[in-house]
Specification:
By secondary structure, the chain is mainly α. The protein folds into 2 domains: 57 residues, no CATH class; 45 residues, no CATH class. Helices cover 42% and strands 0% of the residues. It is elongated.
């Protein structure tokens, strides 16, 4: 997707990668929504914004086998959070963007 003259860079670890952007060593950054959201919150003066999703990487909630009562309660809480917008509000607060489409 990048133009032919683009210089792609890799760094030693995630901290080095993320710190390169606010330091001005790179113009763009590909990282998780969580990491980008935290970076944008710490550096609001840069006016950074999400451009596009490379890959959605969902997270999951697991419950023990046979814990049907707990599983049903967790599903109920999630359904209510989707319905009333709480999940999107939390995603915006912690990730900098709405949760988007979630699996049922």
């Amino acid at each position: 997707m990048a133009p032919p003259a683009t210089e792609l860079r890799r760094f030693e670890d995630n901290n080095s990668t993320v710190s390169a952007y606010p330091a001005g060593r790179v113009q763009l950054l590909a990282t998780s929504a969580q990491v980008a959201g935290a970076m944008m919150a710490k550096n609001p003066q840069q006016g950074t914004e999400f451009k596009f999703v490379l890959k959605d990487s969902p997270n999951f909630i697991g419950v023990g086998k046979g814990e049907d009562k707990l599983r049903l309660k967790v599903n109920e809480i999630i359904a209510e959070g989707r319905k009333n917008g709480d999940i999107d509000k939390m995603a915006v607060r912690w990730l900098g963007r709405p949760a988007g489409d979630l699996p049922n």
